[in-house]
Design brief:
Elements: H1 13-21, E1 30-31, H2 43-51, H3 66-79, E2 93-96, H4 99-110, E3 123-128, H5 133-140, E4 144-149, H6 165-168, E5 171-177, H7 189-202, E6 205-209, H8 224-230, E7 238-243, H9 244-247, E8 256-260, H10 262-275, H11 281-291, H12 295-315, E9 329-333, H13 337-348, E10 350-351, E11 353-354, E12 367-371, H14 376-389
Parallel strand pairs: 1-10, 3-4, 3-5, 5-6, 6-7
Antiparallel strand pairs: 2-8, 7-8, 9-12, 11-12
The structure holds pyridoxal-5'-phosphate.
Length: 390
């Protein structure tokens, strides 16, 4: 009765965590397993949603509003130092209902699920450890996920240029995540350029998930579009994924965008017109206002920095603690991630995610991922308790 590909998926990491811990979170638990920002959302969200309340009665266009697309292009140009006109607001930008659905649906857009007699299934490259949606996307599109570890050890971003030709010739799609969930590492411009060049040489689609690009510690992360600009301005074979969930602490707004190669965007828009969720008009208006405001983003970043300072003070050099260059997760080496998650839950009511659920092979087995999404006071209490318990 069901799609046989589903059997190839493990349960979603949060379900696995609930099974491990013997039940869901309770009112008194400290939930640090989910990357769901609890910082106060900017006041302008509620304001704009109220002003736009009359527009709930309209079916929104799948490609959003001209004002939303203009706001996105203004932001991209400013943030990634792009020349005017490189990203065409009408041909190279689409709103999405959170980047998760977009990262999933792009595989359906790109993959032809028919194994070739000589080569077998098409391949999708993904990092290891990884954001779980990439795996589901690859498998359900009928491809074979190929897990590529960091080029410089388990905490780095992968470099697909190290793969042999026999693999690259079968690749249709590759996901890069920078700053990376879970480990917080960042791809530099050279790595991005090498991988863009590789995608063009082997004609696969390179999806660069940049949803943590605005949460950074010391250095603003490079972006794939900057790499494209410095390589002559073509967007061929490249798509970037951006979200307001982390940048603006509005995971419940379900708003992000995809930008990139106009021919890919046209195919993606076609698929989404059948199966994608269009973003409601009031949300598009709120999102446009958020992309035009950087003050709240700076405040948000400062708050995450203060929590990293706190984590550094509390953990020092224990559990392999290093400050992540980007994102808001700690990736702690605790010996046995599942055992540590269980102990933290039983002894301290703290929920964290074992690294095993975000990786294949044994790459993440010794780690836990800790989401620093709460206010300073809660975070201090939780991290102190965590250090004592571990
Ligand atoms: C790496 C990564 N990409 C994409 C997403 C999806 O975020 P959203 O759908 O809220 O835009 C997440 C959310 O946790 C994530 O961690």
């Amino acid at each position: 009765m069901f799609n046989a590909q589903l059997d190839q998926l493990t349960d979603y990491p949060f379900q696995r965590l609930t099974d491990l811990l013997g039940g869901p979170a309770t009112a008194d638990s400290l939930v640090m397993s989910i990357g769901e920002p609890q910082h106060r959302p900017p006041a302008l969200v509620a304001q704009v949603l109220a002003e736009q309340a009359g527009a709930w009665g309209k079916y929104p266009p799948a490609n959003g509003s001209p004002d939303f697309r203009a706001a996105v292009v203004e932001w991209l140009n400013r943030r990634f130092a792009l020349p005017e006109g490189m990203v065409d607001a009408d041909r190279a930008v689409l709103p999405v209902a959170g980047t998760r659905e977009a990262l999933y649906l792009i595989a359906q857009t790109v993959i032809t699920p028919v194994p070739t007699p000589d080569q077998g299934k098409p391949l999708v490259l993904l990092p290891n450890p990884f954001y779980q949606v990439y795996v589901g996307a690859a498998v359900m599109a009928g491809a074979e996920p190929t897990f590529v570890p960091g080029h410089d050890g388990p905490t780095a971003v992968p470099d697909f240029t190290t793969l042999p030709d026999a693999v690259l010739s079968r690749v249709k799609l590759a996901y890069l995540c920078s700053p990376a969930n879970p480990q917080g590492s960042v791809a530099d411009l050279d790595l991005l350029k090498r991988n863009i060049e590789l995608a063009r040489r082997w004609n696969f689609v390179l999806c660069v998930d940049e949803c943590y690009s605005e949460i950074w510690d010391r250095v603003e992360p490079a972006g794939a579009l900057t790499a494209c600009a410095q390589m002559g301005g073509s967007l061929d074979n490249v798509m970037v994924f951006h979200s307001l969930s982390k940048r603006s602490s509005v995971p419940g707004l379900r708003s992000g965008f995809v930008a990139g190669d106009p021919s890919l965007m046209a195919a993606f828009a076609r698929l989404r017109s059948y199966g994608g969720a269009a973003t409601p008009m009031p949300i598009l208006a709120a999102a446009a206002a958020l992309w035009r405001d950087e003050d709240h983003v700076r405040e948000n970043r400062d708050l995450y920095r203060a929590k990293l300072d706190m984590a550094e003070r509390i953990f020092g050099d224990r559990f392999g603690f290093t400050r992540p260059a980007g994102g808001f997760f700690l990736w702690l080496d605790v010996g046995d991630g599942e055992k540590a998650a269980l102990a933290l839950w039983r002894q301290a009511k703290i929920r964290v995610l074992p690294g095993k659920y975000l990786s294949r092979g044994d790459v993440g087995d010794t780690y836990i991922r800790v989401a620093l999404v709460h206010d300073l006071e809660t975070t201090e209490r939780a991290l102190t308790l965590m250090a004592e318990t571990l």
